[in-house]
């Protein structure tokens, strides 16, 4: 019974530590030019679009997850990775201090009790301290090792884009040609987002086929997390436009439905437009998403110049196809969207 209560306390501590991190990310993020843009728990997600918060359904997650991103109303050159790292460490240290204080108070208050309640409280105190220490260790390890891994290679190239270089000048290579050892699946999934945008920018769609199928195979058995949103967008675009595959496209869409249908940014609208046009031959829906993407492109102050160029190119391409499809004036087949919001 004592072990069960102790472990139950540890599970409660995981949620409490996650909640504390969320609270302090909300407080500290603005000092680094960042903001909490999405919070997910259980089967719901609270996301911020155009300054407004709204609930959407998402894949089940037993732990509170938060996504911290750079503010879109700030110029790209003000996005500092150094400030982001300092802010993240400040959050973890603050949570550790609070957790340690809570653990001490729990020990002092419940140590003399004879009942089983104290083992639940012990579990909460121990779990909060353990989770806080774990977060700090992971953050320090990540910051120290990332530059020697694929993540550091990504960060260096993202910095070049923020400094005004074009996506096409990056000269990115497949993971296996970069020489990094013991590359994790998570690193491959995150790298794919940048690599896919690069290949799309230079028009190398043949080079995009192998990595797209590799990443698709990786995520099939994984639960969707909000940090992988861009990768899912790129895959949905690939399996809607480059290599249309309704089964894969629908699977990707259904996983991120709560995110992408509420996304007011141009990349989300553009992916939806290609999905509607190529997978479901929905010309009217595609045109609506296309117009919304054009409108969003002019309002998105946080977009990088090279990304804006890519979005404009892809939107113009689809705009021409939609115009041709409308000119043919053939009746469209009946749409079957199941439970989709198109």
Word description of this protein:
The protein is built from eleven helices and two strands; from the N terminus they run αββαααααααααα. It has 342 residues and is mainly alpha-helical. The chain has a two-stranded antiparallel ribbon. α5 (185-202) crosses α7 and α9 runs antiparallel to α10. The longest helix has 30 residues, at 81-110. The protein is elongated, with a radius of gyration of 23 Å.
Overall spatial form? elongated
Kindly state the number of beta strands: 2
Strand content: 5-15%
Cα end-to-end separation: 51 Å
Give the H and E element order.
HEEHHHHHHHHHH
- Mean pLDDT, as a whole number? 83
Helix count?
A: 11
Percent helix among the residues?
55-70%
Please outline the major beta sheet: 2 strands, antiparallel
Q: What structural class should be given to the helix and strand makeup?
A: mainly alpha
Low-confidence stretches: 334-341
* Radius of gyration from the alpha-carbon trace, in angstroms: 23 Å
- Strands of the widest sheet, in order across it, are 1-2
